[in-house]
Every structure is written in structure tokens, then in C-alpha cells.
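Inverse folding, one chain.
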């Protein structure tokens, strides 16, 4: 039985950015997202960044699957490494299977 998601959604979500508690990097990240996505408020920056992360994961997977048919393992591994970030590690594995009947 499906639950009504709207009953689980809080009315507010807060992100601590207190520099004294070591969270200043969060504020800086939000400011960078505002600049990258050309938005004027923190909420829009966070929404754009999370949507982008979801789409970026799918696009990286699709690009590597395409390249796997066109380049060798060394090039594919190099591309995966270049697509990796601190927040999202990208790696490839190729499996070879030999079966007999």
C-alpha cells in the first residue's frame, strides 16, 4: 500500500552554515551553486544542484556505456577518472564471460 508522500514532507528544511561549528563550507557551496545556475536565492540553488546531481549521474553512466563500445579499457578508465569528483566517484568494470553449452 502506497503512503501519501505529502504527509511525510516537512514544512522546512534547514542547513546549518555556522562557521564556528565548521559548516562554513556549506554556505560557500550554496553560493557557488547560485552562481553556476544563475539563481538568486539559496533554495533555488540547492534544488538546482540536487536535480543536476541526479541528471549528472545518469548522463555519466550513459556516456560511459556509449564509449565502452568505441574505446579501449585504458581510455575508458581515464574518462571515468576525469568524470569523478570528490562527491561522485566514477569507475568502470568490464566483465568477460566465456560459456560452453
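Residues assigned per position:
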Amino acid at each position: 500500500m502506497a503512503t501519501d508522500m505529502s504527509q511525510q514532507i516537512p514544512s522546512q528544511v534547514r542547513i546549518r552554515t555556522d562557521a564556528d561549528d565548521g559548516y562554513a563550507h556549506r554556505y560557500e557551496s550554496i553560493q557557488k551553486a547560485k552562481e553556476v545556475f544563475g539563481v538568486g536565492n539559496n533554495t533555488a540553488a540547492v534544488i538546482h544542484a540536487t536535480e543536476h546531481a541526479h541528471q549528472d549521474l545518469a548522463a555519466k553512466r550513459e556516456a560511459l556505456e556509449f564509449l565502452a563500445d568505441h574505446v579501449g579499457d585504458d581510455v575508458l578508465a581515464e574518462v571515468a577518472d576525469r568524470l569523478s569528483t570528490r562527491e561522485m566517484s566514477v569507475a568502470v568494470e568490464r566483465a568477460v564471460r566465456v560459456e560452453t553449452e
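The CA atoms of residues 53 and 87 lie 10 Å apart. The chain is about 50% helix and 0% strand.
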